[in-house]
Amino acid sequence: MPLHAFKRPLPLIVAATCGLAAGLLSYPVLRIQSQSRVISNEYAQLSQAARAASQLASDTQQALKARALALDLPAQPPGCPAQVQQQLQQMQLATPGAPAALRVEDGRISCASLPVLVSQDPLPADYYQRADGTRLWHQLQLPAEASHGPYTLLEFQQLALLLKPEEHFARFLGGDAAVAIYESRPPYGAALRSGQIPQRWLQGLPDGLTEQQQQDPQTGDLLLRRLSGSGQTILLASRQASHVQAAIRTAGRYLWSQALLIGLACMVLILVFYPRQSSSRRELERALRRGQMFLVYQPIVDLGSGRCIGAEALMRWRQNDGGIVGPDVFIALAEQFQISEKVTARACRIIAREMPALLQVQADFRIGINLAAQELSTHRTVQRLAALRQQLQLAPSQLVVELTEGSLAIAEQALPVINQLRANGISVAIDDFGTGYCSLSYLATYPFDILKIDKTFVSAAGTDAIIGPIAEHIVNLSKSMGVDALAEGVETAEQAEHFRRQGVALAQGYHFGAPMPLAQLLDLLRKQAQTGTPGA
Ligand code: C2E
Ligand code: CA
Ligand code: CA
Q1: Model pLDDT for residues 472-502, shown as the tens digit of each residue
Q2: Residue 28, preceding bond cis, omega within 30 degrees?
C-alpha cells in the first residue's frame, strides 16, 4: 500500500469528484463512438446496396447475352418479323424494370417489344463499348418516348434492353441515396444512375482494392465504390452529408444521460469499494495484530565515558510488500484514530521479549519508550508500564517514558499519571524540548528526570544561527533543575565534544548510531563489554 493511501479524503468527496470527472470525460468518448457507429452503419448499408446493384447489373447483362446468343438475331431475317417481335416481348416481360426489349440494326431500332419505339433515326454515336462487345448508351432520349427518359440502353449482338436506372437501382437505397454504375477504364462513362452524381465521384479504385469508402471533402457526403466481378465496372453508392448528420444527431440524443449513468456508476463503485481499500484504521490495527510492527533501537551514549548506556525504542511498520513505513506517517494516524495505546501495548510486548537479551549483556541497560498525548489521560498506561518493569525486573531509571511538550499541552489530567509513573520507578523524559509552547511553565508543573534537547537546537549549537545559543540555555536550565540533559540528533564528533564540554550527560544521534535492529544493538553491546567502548 502506498504511503499516500493513509491520507485519503472523505469517500463521498472522492466518489462525487470521480463520478463527475468520469461523467464529463465519458461524454466526448461516447460522442465519438456514437458518430463512428452511425458512419460505419451508413457505409454498411451503402456496401450492401452496391453489392445488390452490382449483382442485378451483372444478372441483367448475363441474361441479355444468353438470350442474344440463343436468338442469334444477325442470322434471322432483318427488320421486325413477327417471331422476332414476340421474342422481344418475352424478353421484356422477363426483365423487371425494363420498359422495352429492342433489336438494334445498323445503329437504329429496327424492332421493339413496343412497336412505337421503332425508328428510322440513328442512335447517338457516343456509346461505350465493353471488351465483351456489349454496348452501352446512357442519358439516352428516344424521340418517340421523349417524356419518359433518360434511358440506358444495353445491347449485345443486336439484342438490346431499354433500362430505367431509377427503377432498376434506386430501390436498394431510400431517400437521398444515389447509385451509379460506370466503367473504370477510360473513357469513364456513367452508365446507370439515380440521384445526383457529380462527375468527380466517378473515379477508379486504387490497385488491389475491391471496395473503397470515402468522404467527399467538398460536401461531406459518404461515398462507397465497389468493383464488380468483371473487374471493370464500378458500383458507386452515396449518402448525403445532411442525412448522416441527422442520423448522428438522433443517435446522440441520449448521450448525456449515458454519461450521467457512467458517472453515477463510478460514484457507486467508489463508495462500495472505498471503505474496504482505504480504512487506514483497520489496516493499522491489522498490522498491529499480525505483528507487522517492530522496534528498532537507537543507542543512547554517556558523553563522559563514551559508553552506550541504553537505547530509545522506535517503531517501524513492515508492509506486505516488504516496504518499511516510518512512524512519521502511522504514529499521527494512530493518534487520530485514538489507538496509540495499542501501539504502546505492542511496543511493550516486543520489549518484554527482546530486552532480556540486552540485559544479559548489560544488566543496567536503559530503554526509552515514546508515549502519545492521549495515553497520559489513562491509568492503563501506568499499569502497562509498571507491569513491564516488574516483568523485566528493571531498576528505577532503567525504564524511561518520553513525552513531548506538545502532548503535555493537550493531555488533561496528565499530572496524576506522571506522578504514578514515577511512583512506580519509571523515569520521565521531556522529548523535543524547546519546540513546544510555554516550555518553562511545563517544567514547573510536571516532575521529570531527563530533558531531551531537540535536534534543531543541537545542530545549531556553536554556530552563529539565531537559535545557536538556545541549546546552551537548555543545558543551564537542566543543571539548575538538577535533571540530566540529553542532546538529540548529534551527527558529528564536534557536536558530541561541544556538549560533553558543557557537561551534558547523555547524547543520541547518527554520530553514535542510527536506529538499528536488536541483533545489531546486541553486537554493539558485546563489543563494548569486551573493549570498554561501543563498537558502532
Ligand atoms: P523522536 O522521539 O524525536 O525520535 C527521534 C527521531 O529522530 C527518530 O526518527 C530518529 O530516527 C531520528 N534521529 C535520530 N538520530 C538522528 C540524527 O542524528 N539526525 C537526524 N536528523 N535524525 C535523527 P523516527 O524513528 O522516524 O521517529 C520519529 C518520531 O516518531 C519519534 O521522534 C517519535 O516521536 C515517534 N515515534 C517513534 N516510535 C514511536 C512509538 O513507538 N510510539 C510513539 N508514541 N511514538 C513513536
Ligand atoms: Ca523520543
Ligand atoms: Ca526527540
Answers
A1: 999 999 999 999 999 999 999 999 999 999 9
A2: no
Q: Which ligand is nearest to the CA of 315?
A: 1
Superfamily, domain 290-529: EAL domain (3.20.20.450)
How far away, in angstroms, is 9 Cα from ligand 2 center? 29
CA distances from residue 35 to 244, 245, 357, 442, 480 in whole angstroms, order as listed: 9, 9, 75, 73, 84
β-bridge partners, 152: 163
Alpha-carbon span 511 to 482, nearest angstrom: 27
Tell how far the Cα of 78 is from the centroid of ligand 1, in angstroms: 118
What nine digits make up the cell of 127? 456509346
In sequence order, the β-bridge partners of residue 102 are 112, 160
- 389: Cβ below 6 Å to ligand 1? no
- pTM score, two decimals? 0.56
- For CATH 3.20.20.450, list the domain ranges present in the chain: 290-529
Q: Which ligand 1 atom is the nearest neighbour of the CA of 402?
A: 2
| Alpha helix stretches (DSSP H) within 225-337 | 241-251, 255-278, 280-289, 327-336
Estimate to the nearest angstrom the gap between the alpha carbon of 80 and the chain centroid: 79
* 372 touches ligand 1 (CB under 6 Å): yes
pLDDT tens-digit readout, 285-342: 989 999 999 999 999 999 999 999 999 999 999 988 888 989 998 999 899 889 999 9
